[in-house]
Predict the structure.
Amino acid sequence: MTNFLTAEWRKLIMANYAVDPNILLPLLPKGTELDIFEGKAYVSLVGFMFINSRIFGVPIPLMGSFEEVNLRFYVKRWVNGEWRRGVVFVNETVPFKVVAVIANWLYKEHYTAIPTKHEWFMNDTKQAIHYYWKKQGIWNELTIEASATSQKMKAGSVEEFIFEHYYGYTKVDAINTIEYNIAHPSWEIYPVKKVTINCDFGAMYGAAFAHLSHLKPDSIMLAEGSNIAVKWKRNKL
């Protein structure tokens, strides 16, 4: 299957919040259902780096590496006797308007282009990963301090649930859904020591998520990431 996009996704921070499933149902693409872990529906505030991005193998001049921040939730779809587990993006933020336009056009996603920046500090024992994005003149922040030694995810853990989703689903409208495949190996994670989140969820993602600005996440994760590939084939459901 031809790859549309290849890149590295690196230093992925996931701040995971359990929410009322009724908040997510209006956003649910047709043909999918919410993927629940231990009785909870989760949304994740995610920050990471796109590095060495290529479209059909061709480097993207001046825009191959950039920050992305997104809010996503988890769904599944029954196909040929097995579950396809995927994510739905409420919004994805990147610094380049052309990247947002292409993604919205081809995959009907919900990208916006606003200023972003990042800082990474690493030594032999610890690391500090910072992502920032500017909305309505104010810088939001997602920062994590973690060990420098990675470990494998435990089978059946919340970390495995959050990270092991390999499909993207987009709600085009009430009757149309786009499905696409995202390929990457299982990731290793780092023990987390400290987190700082300053996010205006209401301004970024709408009134339904505004209350998350005042909540502590249920869990925080940092994954190393890997090379990834987004397949060109898009299934219309």
